[in-house]
Write a structure and sequence with these properties.
It contains nine helices and nine strands. Strand 7, helix 8 and strand 8 form a beta-alpha-beta unit. About 35% of the residues lie in helices and about 15% in strands. Helix 1 packs across helix 9 and helix 5 runs parallel beside helix 9. The structure holds zinc ion (ZN). Keywords: Metal-binding, NAD, Transferase, Zinc.
């Protein structure tokens, strides 16, 4: 890790008036949550069909069995790591306005962040595919699959974005707005290979934001929009930044 770049990043953070963080799988890996893509990613060992919306609608039980095993049996116990904690402290101390995340793990909120826009939804909430009623997952008994709606007996689906399913409108609108308002974007642990997430850094850059990027290796952003690149795991870099900001 280049300490010179950490210092440059801290200077930008101190000078910023509206910093927004943009996070992905790399923030949560050290909380024990595997990424979908890349080395060690979920799609290397599991075929993603169970997260296709058409498959879910046709075979909700089969889909739910896999979803429960991969998300619900593990995510419930996952705890925020130091990178999440520093982001929460940044918000509390008014260094950070909001987080745009591609993660569905709810760990930013668990760490204490209040303004979190979840581009890919959340595992924490279930939604009825019949009547759109929403439930906190704690109301669902996943010993009996698939979980069903109290109102209409329809099947409940995790409120995360499946393949071939639209991005939640509110989250997308807010994310684009936040990217436009930002004078500093802090990218952490993401290559943002999918749309519309991939557009966020570009939108921020176009409206004049500086870009800090923390990733374990260079990404498509590094040589295009990034101003300060910190080649590091999220936890290490954020811990150092946190120290220099006295968080
Ligand atoms: Zn319903």
């Amino acid at each position: 890790m280049n300490t010179g770049n950490i210092k440059k990043a801290v200077k930008l953070i101190r000078e910023s008036r509206y910093m927004v963080a943009f996070t992905g799988a790399g923030v949560s890996v050290e909380s024990g949550i595997p990424p979908f893509r890349g080395t060690g990613g979920l799609w290397n060992t599991t075929h993603p069909i169970f997260l296709e919306i058409e498959y879910f609608q046709k075979k909700p039980l089969q889909s739910w069995k896999k979803i429960k095993e991969i998300f619900y049996d593990k995510l419930g116990d996952a705890e925020p790591n130091i990178a999440h904690e520093i982001l929460a402290k940044m918000e509390k101390r008014s260094f950070l306005e909001s987080i745009i995340t591609q993660n569905i793990d709810h760990l930013h909120q668990k760490a204490g962040n209040k303004y979190v826009y979840e581009l890919h939804g959340t595992y924490k909430q279930l939604v009825c595919i019949g009547c759109n009623s929403e439930y906190d997952m704690s109301f669902a008994d996943l010993n009996f699959l698939p979980p069903t709606c109290f109102v209409c007996k329809g099947i409940l689906k995790p409120d995360m974005v499946f393949f071939n399913e639209a991005i939640p409108e509110f989250a997308q609108k807010k994310s684009f707005e936040e990217a436009q308002k930002a004078d500093l974007l802090l990218i952490i642990g993401t290559n943002a290979e999918v749309l519309p997430a991939a557009k966020i850094p570009e939108i921020a850059k176009k409206t004049g934001a500086k870009i800090i990027e923390i990733n374990i290796k260079p990404s498509p952003f590094t040589n295009t929009v990034t101003d300060v690149f910190i080649e590091s795991r999220a936890t290490e870099a954020m811990e150092e930044i946190g120290k220099l900001l006295y968080l």
